[in-house]
């Protein structure tokens, strides 16, 4: 890592061409973070477009293809973080690509800043470089102070917990639109994906269905598959709907476990869709029940009734939703088992066996979730 950081400093010192051209926004975190930021992204992009500047999004390779479907950015450039961290040639290629574009401004709107996004901003060599002052999530405070110097402007926000939609609104007001009000992201007009043809062979057009997403980025955040199976039975008994189990390739094991445990009819589509196709499936679903995942944010942004099984690791930051302006879509519902240790950043103080969820997730009862589900079906 030290060798790569030395390379970064050498690349940052190379001669570069300045002009009054476009703007690059660096957003390379998770799909859920991207969705929560979309409404504020509109405000940022509109501000620079009105100034006659193009807007390029430097995006995570995990969802960059999906982002090209939206009429927000003039260009989406994909970056693979794992390759950037391991392949010196790729790192040089990304740095020189940023340099050749000669951006007039670089924007880094991720509140919990990391070296990865900070160095991309520095390598852009844009004369104007704007980002959050950030929080104390960086384990090396001295290095953060050094990286603060890479910015020409640091935006400050409320110290302490704050829902991400509100936080994104703080940034948009200070950088672009002073009167901006934070709202739920809206994918209804942006969603252009189509469900796979093979999906229609299993789920005929017009037949109602609901979706379950039993996976999560960490095992500790996953509500037990057996609970999902029992919930599926209750939903089927109430509605007669078939269930679709969705998720990424990393969720296939959890999805298979759920389907094996269920007595209600379920179709396993985990790992079989692109993000665009998953979005299309969620847009036509009657309901989504999911752990704290990107799928829950996508469904909520599509207006699909959503119930999220929420633990305490980041409670209040990504769920429950808080907005400053509402529309006709329902806010996602959250099932929570409150504990005094909330805010642990998933560094659980209780003994958790490999493969098990944390107690804040495991103690959420089926009856509690069913009460929320039955309120919308």
Report on this model:
The chain is an alpha/beta fold and 377 residues long. 39% of the residues lie in helices and 14% in strands. It contains 15 helices and twelve strands. It has a six-stranded parallel β-sheet with strand order 3-2-1-4-5-6, sandwiched between helices. Strands 9-8-7-10-11-12 form a six-stranded parallel β-sheet. Helix 1 (2-12) packs parallel to helix 5 (88-101). The longest helix is centred in the N-terminal third of the chain and has 20 residues, at 31-50. It is globular and about 65 Å long.
Q: Give the strand order of the largest sheet, numbering strands 1, 2, ... along the chain.
A: 3-2-1-4-5-6
CATH class type of the largest domain? Alpha Beta
The backbone outline, from C-alpha atoms, is globular
What is the gyration radius calculated from CA atoms? 21 Å
Task: Outline the low-pLDDT stretches.
Answer: none
Helix/strand order: HEHEHEHHEHEHEHHEHEHEHEHEEHH
CATH T-level topology of the largest domain: Rossmann fold
Number of domains: 2
The CATH homologous superfamily of the largest domain is called Glycogen Phosphorylase B
Number of strands: 12
């Amino acid at each position: 890592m030290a060798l790569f950081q030395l390379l970064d400093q050498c690349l940052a010192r190379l001669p570069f061409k300045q002009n009054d051209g476009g703007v690059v926004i660096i957003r390379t975190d998770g799909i859920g973070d991207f969705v929560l930021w979309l409404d504020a992204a509109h405000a940022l992009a509109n501000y620079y477009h009105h100034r006659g500047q193009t807007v390029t999004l430097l995006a995570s390779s995990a969802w960059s293809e999906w982002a090209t479907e939206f009429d927000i950015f003039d260009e989406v450039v994909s970056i693979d973080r794992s390759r950037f961290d391991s392949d010196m040639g790729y790192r040089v290629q990304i740095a020189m690509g940023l340099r050749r574009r000669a951006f007039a401004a670089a924007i880094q709107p991720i509140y919990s800043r990391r070296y990865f996004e900070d160095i991309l901003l520095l390598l852009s060599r844009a004369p104007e470089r704007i980002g959050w002052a950030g929080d104390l999530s960086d384990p090396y405070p001295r290095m953060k102070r050094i990286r603060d110097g890479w910015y020409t402007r640091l935006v400050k926000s409320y110290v302490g917990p704050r829902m991400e939609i509100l936080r994104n609104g703080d940034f948009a007001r200070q950088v672009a639109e002073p009167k901006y009000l934070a709202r739920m992201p809206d994918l209804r007009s942006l969603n252009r994906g189509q469900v796979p043809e093979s999906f229609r062979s299993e789920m005929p057009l017009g037949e109602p269905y609901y979706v379950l997403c039993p996976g999560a980025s960490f095992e500790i955040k996953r509500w037990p598959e057996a609970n999902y199976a029992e919930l599926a039975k209750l939903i089927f008994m109430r509605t007669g709907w078939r269930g679709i189990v969705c998720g990424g390739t990393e969720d296939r094991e959890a999805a298979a476990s759920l389907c094996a445990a269920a007595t209600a009819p379920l179709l396993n589509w985990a790992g079989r869709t692109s993000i665009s196709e998953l979005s299309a499936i969620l847009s036509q679903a009657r309901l989504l029940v999911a752990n704290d995942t990107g799928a829950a944010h996508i469904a909520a942004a599509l207006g699909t009734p959503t119930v999220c099984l929420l633990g305490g690791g980041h409670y209040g930051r990504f769920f429950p939703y808080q907005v400053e302006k509402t529309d006709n879509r329902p806010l996602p519902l959250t099932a929570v088992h409150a504990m005094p240790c909330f805010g642990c950043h998933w560094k659980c103080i209780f003994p958790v066996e490999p493969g098990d969820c944390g107690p804040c997730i495991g103690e959420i009862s089926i009856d509690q979730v069913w009460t929320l589900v039955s309120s919308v079906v």
